[in-house]
Fold these 4 entries.
Entry 1:
Amino acid sequence: MSVDTATVRHIAKLARLQMSDAEVEALVPELNNILGWVEQLGEVDTSGVEPLATVIDQKLRLRDDVIDADPLTGGNVRDKVLLNAPDAQHGFFAVPKVIE
C-alpha cells in the first residue's frame, strides 16, 4: 500500500488541514515509509504470543485488601465500634432519613 499526493490532499481535506504543495510532497514519502513499517509488522508471526496490557511486569503497589492487615489499627472490630453508635441496625450505623 502506498499513498500519492492526491491521497495526502484528500486526507488533509478530511482532517481539515491546510497544506501547501511543498508540505504535501514532503509528506508522501514519510507516509509511505510509515506504511512500509506497518506492512513489515504485519509479516511477524504473533500466533504464539499472548496479548499484553503492558510490556513491563507490574505488581500492585497497594497492599492487599485484607481484614486485620494492619496490626496497629486492627480490624474486624465492627461490634465494638457499633457499641458507640446511638443507633445501630443490621451491623451499620442507623441515621434518620433526610430525604422525604
Entry 2:
Amino acid sequence: MLRPITLSLAVALAAAAPVLGQQSAPATAATTEPRETIEGTLSQDRTVIAVPAFATPQVETVAGLRTDSLGRQIADVIAADLERSGLYAPIGPGSLRAISMSEVTAPRFADWRARNAENLVHGFVRASGTGGLIVGCYLYDTALGSELVRQGYEIQPGDWRRAAHKCADAIYARLSGEAPFFDSRVAYIAESGPKGNRIKRLAIMDSDGGNHRFITNGQALAISPRFSPDYKKIVYVSYLNNRVRVFIYDIDNGTQKLVTESGNATFAPRWSPDGRQILFSMAVGGNTDIYRVSAEGGTPVRLTTAPGIDVGGSFSPDGKKIVFESDRSGSQQLYVMNVDGSDQRRISFGGGRYATPEWSPRGDLIAFTRLGGGEFRIGVMTPSGGNIRMLTNSWQDEAPTWSPNGRVIQFFRTTPGREGKSSLWQVDLTGVNLRRLPTPQDGSDPSWGPILP
C-alpha cells in the first residue's frame, strides 16, 4: 500500500523528533539491488542532480528495516531511475555527505552550486508509529534557491521501493514535462534449461528489475504475457499437457481464469484499451488469422481471412484501429485495419520484413522488429508507415513493448550460437540510451505495464 499524504504535516511530525546529523551507522541492505548493463552513448547535456541520502529524525527499525539504511537505499533508487532516463546525471548518495533533518526543507544551496548541481533532491524517512513508514521527497532548483516538487507518502515497509519510484517520477515529470514511467512493472518470460527444451515461466518485476517474482512454476510452457490496462491482470498463453489455453492471471489474488482453449496453435494475446476484449492469433488448417474474444470468454470472432499468416494484433490507444503483421504479399509486412476487421491496408514498404508491431500509448508511433541481412532490429514508424527509424543494431532484437509514457521501448536480445542466451533490454527513442535489465534467469517477450495507481 502506498498513500499520498500532506507533507507539511509529516515534516512537522518528523521535526518534533530528535534530529540525526551525520548518518554514520552502517547500512543494512533491505534487498539486493538490481544491476544494469549500459551500452550506447548518453547525452553530454544531461542535467546534474545531487541526491544525498534521505535524512531520518532518529534511527528506528520497522519490520526489520532500519530507517537510516532505507534513507540511503531510497536515494540510490531515485538516482538510478533518473540516470536510467538518459536525461540526467545524478551524483550521490555514496559520494555526498548525509544531510540532517533540518536541511530537508532548508538546503545549503551554495554548497550544491559549488558542486555544479543544477537540481537537488532532499527527503526523509521515518517510522509512522503504526507499523509503517513515512517518506518525504523534495526537489529544488539550486540556482534559484526554490522548491519545485514536494511529495509525501505513507507506506508499508515492503513498498519502500515504490516510494522511491514515485519520487523519481515526480522529479522526472517536473523537469522534463513528460509523463512519468518509473513506478511501473514488467511481465516477461523467464527461461532456463537447454535450448531445445527450455522451461518458460511467467515472471513479474519492477521497471528497473527490482522486486522480481515468478508467477508460474514452469510445469507448463508460458508465452506472450500482456498487462491489462487497469494493471490488475496479465493475459498469457499456457501449454499445460499440450493443451493450448489463454488465461487471465489476477495479480492481487493469484487466481486465473480461462479465456479460450483450442487444439490449434494459439499465441500473441493482446488487450483492448478498455480491457473488455482480447485479440489473439490462431492457426487453423494451415492458415493463421487474428481473432477477437471477450475477456470474459465466449465465441471468438475472426477478423482476418486472407490466405497466409496474420499475426500479432495491437490496438491503437483509442481502440479504433489494429496493427498486425501478415505475409499475404509474399513476405512479412505490417498492416492496419479497423477494429471490426474492415479496411485492411499495408503500411510497411522498403527493404526487409516487418514483425511484432506494438502501437505506442501516445498513438504517434508503432514499434516493430525488422528482419533483414541476417539480423533482427527494433525500429519505429508512424501509423501511416512513414519516418522509419531504427533504434538498435544487434544480431537478434525482437518483440518491442512500450513504456507507459511512450518514450522508452523494451525488447529481448538473443546472442548467436547453439547456446545463445536471451535477455531483456531497453532503449529510448534517441536510440543511444541502451540498457540491459537484470533478471535472475534468461528473459524474453517483455510486456511493460502502465503506471501504478
Entry 3:
Amino acid sequence: MKFSLGPVLFYWPKQTMQTFYQTAADSRVDIVYLGETVCSKRRELKFDDYMALAHMLREAGKQVCLSTMTLLEAPSELRELKRYCDNGDFLIEANDVGAIGLLHEHRLPFICGAPVSIYNAQSLHHLLSLGMQRWVMPVELSQDNVKKLLNDPLLQPQRHRFETELFAFGHLPLAWSARCFTARSEQRYKDQCELCCIKYPQGRKVTSQDGQEVFVLNGIQTLSGARYNLINQLPHLGKEVDIVRISPQSEGTFDWLNKFVNNQDGSAPHPLGADECNGYWLQLAGMVREPSLAR
C-alpha cells in the first residue's frame, strides 16, 4: 500500500506552503500532488514555484504529480492548464474533462481526479483508452461500490493497467460553484474578494440552525463539515485500493500520515473523534461516524 498527499485545498501563505513541502520531502509519503485546484486567484505560489517544489520532492525520492484546476472559468485559466499539461516532466492529475482532452490530444498519460466523478465500468474503460493510468474514486463511493465496479468483466482484463486511489483523510470535497462563498460570507463581491480565503487556513465552518457543523466553505468549494477518516478501515481495504490519500490539513498532517502508515495491518487503530466521519466508505450516510474499529 502506498500513501499520497493530495493537493493543498486551502489558501496558505507562500512560506507556509514551502515549509509544508520541505516536511513532506522528509516524510514517509510516497506520492505528492502539487498545484492549485480551487481558485486561480490564489497566486502565492506560481507555476515556476510549483515546478521548483516538484523537482525538490523528486530528488527526495517522491513521485510527484501536478494537479489541475477543477472548475475552469476564464481563458487565462485555460492557458495555465495548457502550461501544466506541457510541463514535459511530471504526470498530471486531471480534475476536469478539458484537461483530459488536452492530455489525450498530446498523447500524454494522466491521473483522473475525483471531481471527474466516474461511477461505472464503461467510463473507466473509455478513460483507459485515452491514457488514464490511475483514478481517484469519487469520495462518496463505498467499498462495495468500488469492488463491484472493478470486478466488472469489462475491466478485469485491464486491471493491471491502472491504479486506484482512495481519499481517506480530510474534509471531503463535495461541490464547486461559480460563486465564492468565502467572499460572500464577508459581504464582498467575488471580483473584489481581496483574497480573503487566506484568513481561513482550514476554511470556514458552517453550522445548521440546530448547531451541527454541516459544511466547510473554502472559496468556491464546499467541503464536508466532519473530517473523513478511514484509518481503521486500512486493514480491510482489500486488493481494490492501491493508494491511500491524505488531504493536507493546516495542522497535524504528518502526525496523521504516520498514524495511517503504522496502522496498515490494524495494529495501531485510532478511535475517531466526535468531529470525524467514515460513512460513505461503509455505505452509510456520509456524515455518519461508525465507531466500530472492526469494519
Entry 4:
Amino acid sequence: MKAKIAALSIVAIALIAIFMMIDAGGNWDYVLPRRAKKILAIILTGCIIAFSTMIFQTITNNRILTPSIIGLDSLYMFIQTFVIFVFGSTHFTLMNNNVNFLISTGGMVLFAGLLYKFLFKREGQSIYFLLLIGLILGTLFSSLSTFMQVLIDPNEFLVVQDRMFASFNNVKTDLLITSFVLVIGIMIYFWRYIKYLDVLSLGRDQAINLGIPYDFVIKRFLVVIAILVSIATALVGPITFLGLLVANLAHQFMKTYQHKYLLVGSALISVIALVGGLLIVERVLAFSTTLSVIVNFIGGVYFIYLLLKENKA
C-alpha cells in the first residue's frame, strides 16, 4: 500500500515540477510566484474535493453519490445570483472576493446546519431521507436562480454566467490564505473522527452495533463536508464529476477499506488529474477548451459506466 502511495506521490510531484518550469524562459522571478499561487490553489481544491467526496460516499455507503446531490452547488449559484439580482454586479460583496467567499461559505454552512438539525431531530432518521430533502431543495435553489437570471439585465447575467462554470485558469488566488486557515482548522477538528470511517463503511446498523454514536458522528461529518465543498466552490466554481471520478479511481487502485490510505490516494489522484489535465489544456490543446469541460465529460462517461456496472451486479 505504501508503494502505491509513493508511486502516486512521485507522479504528482513530477507533474507539478513540469507545470512550474515548462517554458519559463529564464524569467523565474516573474513566472514562479504566479505559477506557485495557481498550483497551490489547484492542489488545495483537488484535495478538498477528494476528501469531501470520499467521506460523503462512506457515510452514504454509495459510490455513485457526490455532495452536490444535497444541493450545495445549487445553493452557491443561488447566493451569487441573489446578490447580483438585489445589489447589482458592482456591489462590494461581489467585488471583494474575501467578503463574497465568507458570505457564500457562511450561507452554505448555515443551510447544512439547519438541514441536519431539522432532519436529525428525531432519532433513527435515515440519511437517505436527508439526501431526498437535499435533492428537492437543490432543485428549488436552481429554479429560483433561473427565475432571477431571466429577470436581470443581460450584462448582469454575463457576470452570473461567469460564476456558473468552474475555471482552473482563473482561480481566486487571493482566497488562498483564508482557505488554508479554514482547511487546517477543519483537518484538526476532523482528525478525532477519522477512526470512525472504516466502521461507518460497513453500514448504519453494523456501525451502531459496534458502538459508534452514529447520528452524532454523521452530523459532524456532514458539516465538515459542507465547509469543504463551499471552499472548493468559492475557489474555482461548481465542478460536478471530479470527486466521483477520483474517489472511485482511488478505490479501484488502492483496493483497501482503510480510509487512511484511501483519503491520501484519492487526494493524490485528484492532484494528478488536475495538474496533468491543465498541462494538456495549456500545452497540447492551446486553451481550445477548459479543464472543467474535460473533467465533466470524462466524469460523466465514468458515471454512466458505474451505473451500468451496478445494474449488472
